[in-house]
Write a structure and sequence with these properties.
Helix content: over 70%
Radius of gyration: 19 Å
Number of strands: 0
Protein name: CDP-diacylglycerol--glycerol-3-phosphate 3-phosphatidyltransferase
Strand content: under 5%
Keywords: Lipid biosynthesis, Lipid metabolism, Membrane, Phospholipid biosynthesis, Phospholipid metabolism, Transferase, Transmembrane, Transmembrane helix
GO molecular function: CDP-diacylglycerol-glycerol-3-phosphate 3-phosphatidyltransferase activity
Pathway: Phospholipid metabolism; phosphatidylglycerol biosynthesis; phosphatidylglycerol from CDP-diacylglycerol: step 1/2
Number of helices: 8
Distance between the termini: 49 Å
Main location: membrane
Amino acid sequence: MSGPRRGLIQARHLPNLLTGLRLLLAPLLPWLLVSGRAGAALAVAALAGLSDALDGWLAKRFGWGSRLGSLLDPIADKLMLGLAMLGLWLVAALPGWLLLLVALRDLVIVAGAVAWWRLAGPYDGRPTWLGKLTTFAQVLLVLACLLGLVGWLPWAPYAGQAVLVVAMLTFASGLDYVIRYGVMAWRHSRKPAA
């Protein structure tokens, strides 16, 4: 295959490569935090955020989306967020109960999707507006904690209230998914057999 066409074929894999970069960077976050390198952890988080925005833009702008990318992108995002929260818990910047609540919510979402898939087939896994808001709030909380650790944000006076807001959103979002899955299963069970 000639040069320009071959280069185009390779370029379309760039969003997946950026997602792979996030998967590789994620385990660095807790290690950097525990090592006392909050500035480096903030830089890794910023790089992950930029790569996430760039891979999404490339996929949409040039039509470079792929099935693999649609599966790996949310995994990379969840891994990055989860390991960042784990690292912040390990350095006592976030409470353990919040980490547990976030993990339980994600477990509910995954378990519900798997149960639906076994019951009725593929499930459109697009997040709800409450799910998106919750993830956004969790990302802001992690960012605020990191900025507080490096001394760029007077975070301590507001940390408790912010944690409570994120906890309430996380709980509400988890409950929303349980109700949605329950309603979907109930409707499916009432459909006449084909």
